[in-house]
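Lecture 7 notes: from sequence to structure.
We start with the chain below.
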Amino acid sequence: CCGGSSSSYCYMLINNTSSPWYLFFVSTEVVVQSMFYVQILTVLHCLFVAILVNSQTCENAMALKKIPHNSLYVSEPSPFMFGNDDNPKNGANWTCTNWLRSRFHFNFAEHHGGRNMFGVLRVLNDDLVQPERGFGTHPHRNMEIVTYIVDGNLTHQDSMGSKETLGAGGIQYMSAGRGVRHSEFNENKEPLRFIQMWFLPRHQELMPVYGGYAGDLNSENNKLFHLVSDYDDNESKTPVKIHQDVNLYAGKLAADITVGHEISEKRIAYLVCIEGSITVSGAHGSETLVQYDAADVIGPNNIGITAGSSGAHVLLIVMAKAL
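Predicted structure tokens for the same chain:
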């Protein structure tokens, strides 16, 4: 900022008798006629101006942080880890060579090189499970687990006696509490994709609970449908309740459709572009997300989400800034 015409501008400010910089130096009996001091002041003033001018830009930039899909860790564990048969060489209707391809948004399993969490969101895994494969029986404890089904059918079975199969647009919810064991399988001939989220609970050692919502993708058309809210929130009438201050929305948007959502000052949000592409506009300016991309959104921020030319499928998770 201190080169060329900007340097002349800063020099004029210092030597202008009405300038606060001039008055400062007179009052402190600094000899401004000395070129050495003038040069120092020029640099200091320019730095000061740069900070003032760019502070709002920096704040706006922090309002949204894009998480590109190519920065996510992709895990393809051995089929034997969860009791599956070996991967077939040419499996009918298989869309990848391994039984599972999982994109981790946070540190999980063998991945330790990323973030641990965002707000109370501890895990978000985008899982693609091939036909007739799944996660054998395994334990959970003290976690609120929400699974949103994107494509296919997911069969859940647990140690509480629950067994249910749900399809696209559905949600399986489990409060692991003091401990529960369950399995998750794709029993069909087509691939299954779901997004599983783990939230830290408000209290430890709760009574384990399972719940499911069959879902209706039509109800998500061209709007953000409120799917999950807090048990302590008596105003929100959502199909799923969890033991944490979280609101989860999903929406399928036609091309060029825009939906909005206000993130208040004490809230943050995690936005996932499940399918298609979106442009997110708000205090940060605008940012484009494509399939598998995500973004941190910091309130206050009144965001607009506009679907691209092929439409979009989005997930928005809103929660408190701090525990």
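Points to note: The longest helix spans residues 35-62. Residues 1-35, 45-61 have pLDDT under 50 and may be disordered.
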